[in-house]
Structures are given as structure tokens and as C-alpha cells.
Amino acid sequence: MTNQRKLAITELALRDGHQSLLATRMRLDDMLPICEKLDQVGFWSIEAWGGATFDTCLRYLKEGPWLRLRLLKQALPNTPLQMLLRGQNLLGYRHYADDVVQKFIDTSTANGVDIFRIFDAMNDLRNVRVAVAQVKANNRHAEGAISYTVSPVHTLDYFVDLGKQFEDMGCDTIAIKDMAGLLTPSIVRELVTRLKASVSVPLHLHCHATAGVAEMVQWEAAHAGCDIIDTAISPLSGGTSHPATESMVAAFADTPLNTGLDLDLLQDIANYFREVRKKYKRYESDVTVVDPRVLTSQIPGGMISNLANQLREQNALDKMDAVLAEIPRVRKDFGYPPLVTPTSQIVGTQAVLNVIAGKKYKIITKETKDYLQGKYGKPLGCVNEAVRSKALGDGDEVVDIRPADLLPPELDDLTREIGDRAKSFEDVLSYAMFPAIALEFFEERDNDCLKPELLEEVAADTAATSAAPSLAPTEFNITIHGEEYHIKIEGSGHSSEELRPFYVKVDNVLEEVYVETLTEVIPTRDGNIDAQKASKGSKRPRARQDSDVTTPMPGRIVAVNVEVGQAIKAGDTVLVVEAMKMESPVHAPVSGIVESLFVKEGDTVNPDECLIQVNTA
To answer: Percent of the chain at pLDDT above 70?
Structure first.
């Protein structure tokens, strides 16, 4: 008898598609017009929230993330809305107390989430139990996600056991979350076959296309019994994203697994997103084609582009291969955690610091310390004890219980802290996730001056119609005495008082040139462009003495722990800098008195700038 089982599809265009390829920058205004057609397709679900969307809404798009969720729910009444939830981490980068986890899930349900895909970066299921239970208490669909990875300690027996535990918790479906695209057709066939024999709930496959085998992986998984696959509409597919929706629908069309989805309707949706993507050219991932390096570095979808951005900011793109080589070494030192948020950021950032500093673990982020102390959970492999000893201070004991058991209820304290700056309970939860970013968002909202980043075409239009000078292009051709040269600005260095280095490719040959800046072109908050005379006195001095406090990476000041006149000791944490969404403590290089303080909370800083001057006399 012919098997009539249909394959179901979750569409990722509104979350992971643009998170992987466009730095999560797609705006709600570009989602809502196509929602009516998306709602007609018959997807099993549409992933539209969670992951990095919450952070990006507040930080860059200046959209209320909760409002986005409500409006998408209204626009997609017939299709379940799915979100990605990081267990006890929720959408942030630390563990939250149980009361925050429970209220966040309650509020997400009330605002429109139907399906919660819940995972823990370490596959430590102690970190997902509260979230799963709360989803079920709200009568919503709980999907437990296995974070798939490859290492000497991760076996198929281990992953099958995780699936059983998720089912025992009450999960309605189980997802295999292959965030880095490491699955191969033969492995997924065996894994799905064994899971189907061990659990009774449906299986869901999430597989990134980075390594170039995702379509084959989905084909084999479906024929082995996988019930649901994740795809992204074609303009937002491939590279670090996922297989194309239309392609997979066509592939299964004449088989017993026929999805039943309308290709003509999908083509209309693809045509829409093809035009939308053009607006986000400035955020395009550098990895839009097959990149088999992921098979050794194991970096998930969006992480490669984030690493490239960090290295570009430091004019160190030439060190990308060194960073990719360092990541597996750091991962081994850390006990082979799967590389998915937040462990991918922790491992990736530490690898960047190791390479940039020229010495392993010379600089250790707060998150690295917390990870090695056990505050994120228990890794499956053995941690390098020499590295752990270097990261932990005297008296810091390794945590061997569920990390959240160390956290007292915090929702009341958070509510008191935010006070009347919160206009709703959703605001309190936004503040819990990202305190500094949320406060900035609330202030701009209250002053009616929320302005998202300028899109490239908007910036160009503004420049063309403004009497002010336009923003300079970064790639162009010039003709000198009849000879044409192709010029591309690759990046810039850090200014001295008068000169700034630029790294320029001339006919694909990298050159370093120094430019004396006489005026600065500065985009203002309202989108206009001001030309100002450069003010030497307004710049931070360049660090010149061993006693000057600097940061090794560009970032944002999130805490200033000292004041002028204060006595400090060598090694004291004087500042905290956020880079790559990780917090790095900045330590005093010497003992002395704080003579000058050149930064405040919220400032953006660069390497080699003097942030604090210390008098050692």
C-alpha cells in the first residue's frame, strides 16, 4: 500500500532566513505586506520571533519586539507562529531566574506565540525543564531541540537519549537542530531512523546550508521518517541560511511525501522577497555560497559573518583563517560544547581575542569565566583545567548544580529597577533581556525619536537631495590620464591626532594609505548629514603609556567602575566593554590614581584609544 504521509514545512523567512544572511535586519514594514500570501500557503508553522530578532529590534531597528509579535500574529491568523527560545537563557546571554522564564513564556503566549522551540546550548536538559513545563501550562506546543554537533564525545546514542528525555518531559515534537550544517546524508538517515524507533512524537529537522549538503540531508531525513523540515523562501536561502522552500517542495512533489504546497503561490512570495532583499544590501553576509570550512570550524549560520564584521572593525580580516583554526582548539579546551548561541559567541569571541592578542587566554571575557565556572551548565567533555584555573579567581568554585538554582527570584527587583520608565509588563521583560539597550530604546520612544539605521538606498537618496556633503562610496572606478583603476575601501584604522590609515585595494592589491582629515561627515539621528570641522580636542587621546587603560577590541562601554581621584590596584576591573554581545572586563595595567577618565557608559570605543589615564607617581 502506498504511503500517503505528507512532509510538513516550517518557513523561516521572517526569522532565521534574514538572521543568517542579512544580520537580522529585516523590518516589520517589509514583512507585513506579504503575510496574507504566506498565511495562504499552509505551512506547518512560520518561525517569526526569537533568536536574535528581539535584540535587533531594540538595538538597531528601533521597533518594539512585542509589538512586532502582535502585528505578525494578526497578519498570520491561520498559521501557527513559532519562536526560538534558549531555555533558561530565554533570548539573552545569561541564565535568568525561574520567575523570569515563566513570565516571559506567559507573556509570549499572550502576544501570539503558538510553538516554542526550546533548546540549551550545552544540551544540559536541566536548563530547559522549567521552560518546557511553562509552555505546557499555557497549553501551547513545546518542541524540544537537540543541539547537534560533532566531537569525540558526541555520539548517536547520546542524541537518541536526549530525544527520549525530551519526550519524557512532555514535548510535543522533537527537533534536530543542526545549527552549523554538520549533518551528512548517511548520518541523518541513521539518526532519524533510531529516533523514530525510540520516540513516538513527530521529528523536525533544522539544517543550515553552509556546507552544501543540506538538501541531501533533508531528502534522506524525510525518507527515514522525519515529519517536518525547515526551509527558507529562495531569496533568503542558501549560504549560511537553509534550503530553498520552492526547491524542496518541487523535490518532493511527485513522491509519497508530497507537501501539497502551491509552487505558484511560493513563486509570488519569492518575487516579493527578491525585491525586499535589495534594500538590505549593506547587511549582506559575506558567506552566501557554499563554505566547507564549517565542517572543521563548526561555526553556525550567522556566526561567520559576525566574526568577519569584528575582524573588519579591527582591520584584521586577514586573520579570519587563524580565527577559524583557533575555534576548534578553544572548543576542545571548553569540553566540546555545541556551537550555538550563546556558546558560539563565547567560544568565537574567545578565539578572536586569542588571535588578536597574540597569546592564548591573555584576555578572558566575563562569559568565558562564567562558562568555565559552570554557570551555563555542564559540558559533555572534559574542560582544560589549566585554562579554567586561569579564568577563575581565588575562591571561585565550579558550579555542579542546575545553574538557575543559584538565582533567587528577580522579577520584582527588575520591576523596581525600571520603575516608571516601563510602560507595560513587556517593557520590564525587555529590560530583563537587554538592560542598557532597552533603556536607550525607552528613552528614544518616550521622546518620539526612534530612528532605525539608515538603509543604504535611503542614505543615498538623502545624500542626493541634501545640500550637505554626501557619504563617500566605498567601491568605485577612477580614471587618471586615461588609465582606469578599480578602488575598494576595505577598512580604516584608528586615528592619531591628525592622520587616519585607510586600507584600500587598487586593482585587487591591498595598500595602506594615510589621510589627513580636515572635515568629518556625520549622519545625524534624523537622517540628515552634517559636515563639521574636525575638532582635535574632542577626540580621545591615543594610548601612549603603559599605564593608559585601553581595550583590545572595539565595543560599547557598559560599566565604568572607577572615578577620577580613585586609588586602584593592578588587575582591578575598571571598565566593562561589550563586544560581539559578550562582556569583557578591562583591567588596570598598573596600580595608581585615576587621573583622567575619557569615557562614560554607552560610549563606543576602539583599540589604542586611551580610556583612562592612571598616575603611578
So the answer is: 82
